[in-house]
Amino acid sequence: MTDAGERTLRPWIAAAADLAVVVVFVVIGRRSHHEDAGFVGFLRVWWPFAVGLGVAWSVTGLRRAPLAWSRVAGAWLVTVGVGMALRVVVEGHDLSIAFTVVTLLFLGAGMFGWRGGLLRVRARRRAETSGA
Questions:
Q1: Spatial separation of the C-alpha atoms in residues 15 and 93, rounded to whole Å
Q2: Which of 29, 33, 84, 128 has the most CB atoms around it within 10 Å of its CB?
Q3: Segment 62-106, tens digit of pLDDT
Q4: Whole-angstrom Cα distance, residue 106 to residue 108?
């Protein structure tokens, strides 16, 4: 991927998409575990990972190149690491290896997945417009 291709997405759109991944993760997780503490319960699970995502965007420079795989990888790992740390230290949850693995897999698939889909659509459009 070229540097120009990595920068052609507005950062706020990428940040909103990443935040949507976190929201979907929490909604699906709460539903699959039949948790019904309403909006407050949602916030208790969501905020550590939302903060983690904010930290990740700050420390990885993802804003400068929101489609750069190496920056996405860093942001994904920071998001999960900070989110899990806040969940354990502030929320008082035990560190669950199973939950950590599910979090890594879901957030990784989501953060890389929407970017991969976008890049695939863009490549297809370029191929169509170039007559290939």
A1: 27
A2: 84
A3: 999 999 999 999 999 999 999 999 999 999 999 999 999 999 999
A4: 5
